[in-house]
Amino acid sequence: MKKNQRKENPFPFSDTNKRYYTMDYFLRQKFGKKACKIPIDAGFTCPNRDGTKGFGGCTFCSEKGSGEFTLGNGHSITEQIDAGAKMMHQKWEDAILIPYFQSFTNTYAPVTVLREKYTEALSNPLCNGICIATRPDCITNEISVLLHKIAEEQFLMLELGLQTIHDKTADVLNRRYGYADFLKTYDMVKDLFICVHLINGLPGEDHKMMLDSAKALAELKPSAIKFHALYIVEGTQMSKSYLRGEFDTITKEEYVNTVCDQLEVLPPQTVIERVTGDGACNTLIAPEWSRKKLTVQNEIDKELYRRQSYQGIKFSL
């Protein structure tokens, strides 16, 4: 008789075959139905681009500040939400919508500007909550107060781009802040719903270093973590290094094994917003396997099942 992976799944925070705490499961439990994020470009920039901390941005970051899937800041926030809602409701008719301030650094502005932009999104009758992506060195005490006030009334997710705990790697990436800076900000906002970004396959990092990043976050117990492989896109500083043959990207097999090892050491209550990402198809240089996101997700599912493992199995308090 064929085994039923869903029925055999020992992981408590799942109603599918997923052996980790998916964001989809978390949001369905919270809102009682499907919830979707709508990517927004609110017209922000970054201190690592305008000269405040540097120029050119992080070496892996695209010209659109990772906002390839937004409608673009030539449209108002309301227009972007309405367009995203139309698209999402074609797939999920009654889905709850969460505006996702994604492009560049979305707390890098005066509080008055931030409040105005966030309020425009939160006041949209189609939406429920807000998601804000930013750098950990761009949250002041005043901005923290604003975020906490919003979180008292609405669902708020704050996404912090860490990528790696290793400052040596961060220097190569031109990140312009250290792990100590991240920890200082994390302590300021840790009572919010925090999602930390990690990138696997960064130049110079081996398996142990990637696993150490996950172990360090396990000790912090963030609300959520977002994983993806390093992908190389046209127009970035990193693409020039890659095309010169200075480093290679992580293989699919290495990536799957690494993510499974990372999931095992994380707290089971930490939501996994995603286990892989994908760049825009028209600008992606490498790795080719990252184009097939569903395949990568399936390979992670199969590897956890093969191991008879799941998120948190190796986590210790």
Overall body shape: globular
Radius of gyration, in Å, reads 19 Å
Terminal CA distance reads 39 Å
Give the low-confidence spans. none
Mean pLDDT: 93
CATH class categorisation: Alpha Beta
**Main beta sheet: strand number and arrangement?**
7 strands, parallel
Structural class call reads alpha/beta
CATH fold type? TIM Barrel
- The topology string of helices and strands comes to HEHEHEHEHHEHEEHHEEH
| Count of individual beta strands | 9
Instruction: Indicate the percent of residues in helices.
Output: 25-40%
Description:
- This protein is an alpha/beta fold and 317 residues long.
- The protein has a single domain, classed as Alpha-Beta Barrel (TIM Barrel).
- Helices cover 37% and strands 15% of the residues.
- The chain has a seven-stranded parallel β-sheet, sandwiched between helices.
- It is globular and about 50 Å long.
Give the helices and strands, then pairings.
Elements: H1 23-31, E1 35-40, H2 77-91, E2 96-101, H3 111-122, E3 130-134, H4 141-153, E4 156-163, H5 167-173, H6 179-189, E5 193-200, H7 207-220, E6 224-229, E7 232-233, H8 237-243, H9 252-265, E8 271-274, E9 284-286, H10 293-307
Parallel strand pairs: 1-2, 2-3, 3-4, 4-5, 5-6, 6-8
Antiparallel strand pairs: 7-9
